[in-house]
Design goal:
Elements lengths: L3 H9 L5 H15 L2 H4 L2 E7 L2 E6 L2 H9 L1 H10 L7 E6 L32 H16 L1
Parallel strand pairs: 2-3
Antiparallel strand pairs: 1-2
Length: about 140
Amino acid sequence: MKKINEILTHIQNTPSFDKINTFLEIKRFVNILPLKLKSGIKFAYVKNDTLIFVLIHQVFKVEFEYAKRDILSLLKSSNLNNITQISFFVSNSVEKIKKSINESSEKYDERAFGIFENKALDEKLFKKFEDIRVIIKES
């Protein structure tokens, strides 16, 4: 009887999983890149014999061009054997910044009772203070 690990390995090595395996290899390759290069990659894909990096900013393209030989040497040590060239370009689309601010809709009990002396002499101020008193009493 085969072990589950052997079965999964056999399924993974079937030709129908080639694209997934290539994607995973690209992901592993991106993870071994230096941090200054890795932080500029939006995503990467393979087309023909070229590994194409889509970058998030023009500055990273200059960094990648500078480190092109290092990337090619790392590429030879990875499992992506059929890739002979690498290419970089900056995408035109701007990523939306994700806001992680959680707006709280918690309501607190009013601790005041609206009991205060309204000593305002101006009629507008007097009316404003009375409106505040009504709001406090209603909550």
